[in-house]
Amino acid sequence: MRDSRKPKINKKPFWFSVLFLLKIYWSVYSLEDSQALTPPMGFSTWNEFGCSISESTIVSTGHLMLKKHPADWEGRELSLRDAGYVYVNIDDCWHAQSRDAQGNPQWDSAKFPRGLKWLADTLHQMELKIGIYSCAGTATCCNYFASFNPENPEVGYDPIDANAYADWGIDYLKDDWCNVPSDYQNANGSQKLYARMRDALKAATSKTGRPIVFSLCNWGQYSVYQWGDTIGHLWRTGGDITPEWNSIMSNITANSTGAQYAKPGAWNDPDMMEVGNGSLSLAENRAHFDLWCISAAPLILGNDLSKMSDSIFYILTNREVIAIDQDSLGYQGRKVRTDGDVQIWSKKLKNGAWAVVLVNTGTESTNSSVLWSDIGESDLTRSYPVRDVWQHRTVSESATDSYSVNSIPGHGTVHLVFGSAYWMEPVSIIKNKSLNSSPRGFEKISAKRINSTTTVYIPFTSSNVTIYNLQGKKSSTFFVKEPSWITIPESFAKRNFSIIQIIKSNGSKITLDINSINHSVPK
Ligand code: GLA
Predict the structure, then answer these.
(1) Do the first three CATH levels of 334-418 and 434-516 match, i.e. the same topology?
(2) How far is the CA of 270 from the centre of ligand 1 (A)?
(3) How do residues 513-523 score in pLDDT, each as one tens digit?
(4) Dmax (CA) of the chain
C-alpha cells in the first residue's frame, strides 16, 4: 500500500534562516538607531559665515541659542534651545592644511585654539550638541582634506576620521560630495562611499556610546531619496540654497520628489535655512519657514544670531509651526493643488488633523480656498475647526466642504490646521523646561476689533509701541504715557500688519503678533 502521508518536512530551519538573513540585512542596511526621529533642529555656519569661522563664532552662537527673548504670544520668554534648536554645526573650513603624519584629521589651531574636543565639551555643558563637516571625495568643496584616500581607495580615511569625531564628542556629521572620483559618480558609488562612513561611525560610536547623526549631501543625485534611509538620517535633495525667493521655491519643490520616502529617522533635506538672510521680506521669511515645516524638513538656522531681529526670532520660534515640522508621524507634506498663483500644500498630522500652507507665488496679495479634496477628505459634509498658526487663534469653529482664505500676501503664506486642537501640544523639549507662564502684565494686553477698527490695550506707562507690517517696515509708532488703548491704522488691520513691539520704560521688550492677542477686554 502506498503511504499517502506526505513526508514530514521540518519547516523550522527554513524560517530560522529567513529571519537570520533578515536580521543581517537590517543590521547592515538599516540604521534603526532611534536617532533623528523628528527632523534635526539646530544651526550651521555655512550660509552666513562661510569659511570665516572660529571658536568664538561657535561659542557665541551657543550662548545666543540660550538667550531668552522678549515674551511671545503666550507670554513665554524662550530661547532658541527652548524651541528645539540644539545642534551647532561647523561646516567646511574647520580643517588644518593637512592631516598629521599618521593620517589623523587636524583642526586649524589658529581658528580653534582650544580644539574641537574642548568645543564639544563646552557646547555639551550648555545642553547643546555639536556637528562637523566632511566630504566623501579627495578634498572638501573648499579644498581641505576629506575622506577618500586615492592610495587606499577601498578603505579610505573613514575609520580614522570616524574615530576622531567620536573621540572629540561630535554629535552630527554632514558628508559632502565634492571631488569624488568619476568611478563613484553613480548610485552604486555614492551608496558605497556613504555606507562606508556609516559603518565607520557605527563602529566608532559603539565605543563611546555617543551617537552621531549622519547627514548625506550629494545634492539629490542618483535618486538618493530612494536609498538614503538605509545609510543616513537625512539627505540633501538639491543644490545650495541662496537667500532669494526663487531659490527657496526651487529647493523646496525639488525636495518633494521623494516625499514618500521621509519617515522618522530619515528625512529629505532641502538645505539649511536662509530665514533672516539677504533681503528677504518678512512675508518671504515666514513663507520659507512655513514651507520647510510643512515638508518635515530639518530646521537648520543659517543666519547670524547676533544680528537677528525680534521679528525673525518670532518666526523661527513659532512653536505651533515647529510642532507641524516635528510631528511624530513623520509625514512629509507636499503640494496638492495649484490655484492660479497659489500653491496649496498639505501635511497629515499624527492626531488625524491636517496642516495646510497656501503659498502665493505672485507678488500681489490674492485669495484662494482649501477644498476638502485637497486634504484628502471625501466626506464633504464633514466639518473641521480651522486654526491659523500665525494668528494663534481659531479662525473658524466649524468649516464644511471648503475654507476660503483672503489676502494671502505676495510671496507669502497663510498656514492653517484643520482638525482637533493639535496646536495645544507643545514641542517635546518645551515640556521639560520650567517656563514663566505669566510674565509681568502680559495677560492684560488685549485687543478688540469692531468692524475694521482694531484697538490694542497697552497696560504699561511710558512705553514705545511700534507696529510693523509683513514686509518688516515700521508702519506706526506710538508713545503710551498711561495704560491706554491705541488704534491700529486701518490699512494694517488685516493680514497686512503683523508684529507689535512694545518697549517698556525699563527697556524690556515684548514682541507679538497682533492677531494673537487675547481678544477679551480687560476689566
Ligand atoms: C557644498 C554644500 C554646502 C556647503 C559647502 C561648503 O556646496 O552643498 O552646503 O557645505 O559645500 O564648502
Answers:
(1) yes
(2) 13
(3) 665 554 433 32
(4) 111
